[in-house]
């Protein structure tokens, strides 16, 4: 390359912080300089003269670089990060308050230690995902998706079962394989959506088939709540892709048939569970009337109702404790995980409960607004799937806590004490922030850049 | 005729969007086309145009893609989006009101 041109491009590049966009910017400016040069040569200049004039015509490289940097510098969504921090803090305070309460029968030291360890790991994983270039994953989408299906299938068959749910144990950590599978499903499904949804009916059938298979692996695991989360995320993602402008085909017909079959599937599943009768069916319906079976299937719903109905605006509810066999204890079991919201409301009052809901809502809104600014399609799908799952999880948990949904094991993201779930959620938010950071990636449609 | 710099800068976005509303173009082509249409009154400086194009792209007003076209040279083409069309409409309206008012204040002079 001519030294005048390379000199010019270097000066522009020096001003730009985000090095991944340099290739495409240099290519664009270089091509402009060549066009100018060609024009000047036609006007009768020598090549050297023409190049010098062309470079001069481009303007001040430092100024151009600075202006371009304003657009291309990596963007960090500080509002999402601070809301995330607020949620982790609320969770920490709740956990501390629970574990330091004698009536929780929990070991404070042990819980504080693992809270700190998981927070530390979570921040590490989140940071790693933030800096990882997610675009590298897209081409492995199908592979990741199928491996995840296989992983769940094998883990279901071969790992140790605790209360009928398979657990994997590595070192001192034991976890439900479903928690690990969920993010991989989301990431790879975003790639599949980008690849197959805009296309023809055959591709659409392929993606729907794979999606159903994935949901089935979770249902059989069994993890009803995660199956619901995943299908919710899948449906939202497919809807966004079908409504997108790249879609060819009859939007209405496709969406109606997808929604129709999903509704049918849910109805069949419900009928199946209710038809079987027994404990599962009773647990599913008891939230409609928490007092109907207070010592059986409705035990938790009954306690939740008792705790929340006597909660105050500020301070402790009278029904937070319950004396069982002479021991005074916090009424609900597992209060630090799935029912942490009920604890916050009954131990600190409704005002703090509302603040918690507001922080979550703000996070959802900020995350949703962030997805709208992402230009890269795969990144957009990825971010949307993460926001959907986060929102559904939070919504499911709050509804369950205030007695408006069956007890299905949704945890409150970042607030529930959740070990591996916490780390997984942190990873997903890291990916989301990383997508936002690279939101202006240029889509190269033809050829490769030779830089 | 030389046009005042500030006056030019504010309207560059509108001119760029307007050029793109007639079809996809690459940077060099836009500079040439604008010169041609304004009888060389407007010279769109490269150093002004690219930052504006890139920020329009980041805001989703235009989309870009690489194409080799007829020549073997790689070019980055810009395409106006629906959002961009809307912005152009607004800018045009703003401009109309502005120029009408200026004309009125100037005493009904017409420069056309």
Automatic annotation (TrEMBL), chain A:
Q: From the UniProt record, give one GO term of the biological process aspect.
A: cell division
Q: How does it sit in the membrane?
A: Multi-pass membrane protein
Keyword Cell cycle assigned to the entry: answer is yes
Q: Which InterPro entries match?
A: FtsW/RodA, Perm_prefix_1
Any single Pfam family the record assigns to this protein: FTSW_RODA_SPOVE
This protein's record includes keyword Transmembrane: yes
Name the residues that span the membrane: 78-99, 111-132, 139-155, 167-192, 204-221, 227-247, 254-275, 340-369, 381-402, 414-436
Q: Specify the superkingdom.
A: Bacteria
Spell out the PANTHER family in the cross-references.
CELL CYCLE PROTEIN (PTHR30474), PEPTIDOGLYCAN GLYCOSYLTRANSFERASE MRDB (PTHR30474:SF1)
Q: What protein name does the entry list? A: Cell division protein FtsW, lipid II flippase
UniProtKB/TrEMBL annotation, chain B:
Q: Where would I find the Transcription regulator PadR N-terminal domain in this sequence?
A: 16-90
One Pfam family assigned to this protein is PadR
* Highest taxon listed in the record's lineage: Bacteria
Tell me which stretches of the chain form a coiled coil.
none
* Signal sequence region: none
The molecule here is called: Transcriptional regulator, PadR family
What organism is listed for this UniProt entry?
A: Anaerovirgula multivorans
């Amino acid at each position: 390359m001519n030294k005048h041109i390379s000199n010019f491009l270097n000066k522009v590049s020096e001003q730009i912080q985000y090095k991944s966009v340099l290739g495409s910017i240099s290519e664009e400016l270089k091509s402009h300089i060549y066009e100018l040069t060609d024009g000047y040569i036609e006007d009768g200049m020598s090549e050297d003269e023409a190049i010098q004039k062309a470079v001069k015509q481009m303007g001040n490289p430092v100024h151009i670089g600075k202006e371009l940097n304003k657009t291309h510098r990596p963007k960090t969504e500080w509002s999402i990060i601070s809301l995330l921090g607020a949620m982790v803090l609320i969770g920490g305070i709740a956990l501390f308050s629970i574990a330091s309460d004698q009536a929780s029968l929990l070991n404070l030291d042990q819980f504080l230690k693992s809270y700190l360890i998981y927070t530390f790991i979570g921040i590490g994983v989140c940071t790693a995902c933030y800096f990882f270039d997610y675009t590298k994953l897209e081409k492995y989408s199908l592979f990741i998706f199928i491996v995840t299906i296989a992983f769940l299938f094998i883990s279901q068959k071969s790992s140790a079962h605790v209360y009928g749910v398979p657990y994997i144990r590595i070192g001192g950590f034991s976890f439900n394989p479903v928690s690990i599978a969920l993010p991989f499903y989301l990431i790879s499904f975003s790639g599949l959506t980008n690849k197959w949804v805009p296309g023809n009916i055959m591709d659409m059938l392929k993606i729907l088939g794979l999606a159903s298979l994935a949901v089935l692996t979770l249902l059989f695991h069994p993890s009803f709540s995660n199956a619901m989360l995943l299908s919710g995320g899948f449906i939202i993602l497919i809807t966004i892709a079908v409504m997108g402008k790249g879609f060819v085909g009859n939007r209405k017909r496709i969406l109606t048939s997808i929604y129709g079959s999903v509704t049918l599937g849910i109805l069949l599943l419900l009928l199946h569970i209710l038809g079987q009768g027994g404990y599962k069916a009773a647990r599913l319906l008891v939230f409609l009337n928490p007092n109907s079976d207070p010592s059986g299937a409705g035990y938790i719903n009954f306690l939740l109702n008792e705790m929340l109905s006597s909660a105050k605006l500020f301070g402790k509810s009278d029904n937070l404790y319950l004396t069982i066999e002479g021991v005074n204890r916090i009424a609900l079991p597992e209060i630090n995980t799935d029912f942490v919201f009920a604890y916050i409301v009954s131990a600190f009052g409704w005002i703090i409960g509302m603040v918690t809901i507001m922080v979550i809502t703000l996070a959802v809104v900020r995350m949703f607004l962030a997805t709208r600014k992402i230009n890269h399609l795969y990144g957009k799908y990825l971010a949307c799937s993460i926001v959907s799952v986060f929102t559904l999880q939070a919504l499911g948990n709050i509804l369950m806590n205030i007695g408006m949904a069956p007890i299905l094991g949704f945890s409150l993201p970042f607030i529930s004490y959740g070990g591996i779930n916490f780390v997984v959620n942190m990873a997903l938010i890291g990916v989301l922030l990383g997508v936002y950071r690279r939101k202006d990636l240029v889509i190269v449609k033809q050829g490769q850049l030779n830089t | 005729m030389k046009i005042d710099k500030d006056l030019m800068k504010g309207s560059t976005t509108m001119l760029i969007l307007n050029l793109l509303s007639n079809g996809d173009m690459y940077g060099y082509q836009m500079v040439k086309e604008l010169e041609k249409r304004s009888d060389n009154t407007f010279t769109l400086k490269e150093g002004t145009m690219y930052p504006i194009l890139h920020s329009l792209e980041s805001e989703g007003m235009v989309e870009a893609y690489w194409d080799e076209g007829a020549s073997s040279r790689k070019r980055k083409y810009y395409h106006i989006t629906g959002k961009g069309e809307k912005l152009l409409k607004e800018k045009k309206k703003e401009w109309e009101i502005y120029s009408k008012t200026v004309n009125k204040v100037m005493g009904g002079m017409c420069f056309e």
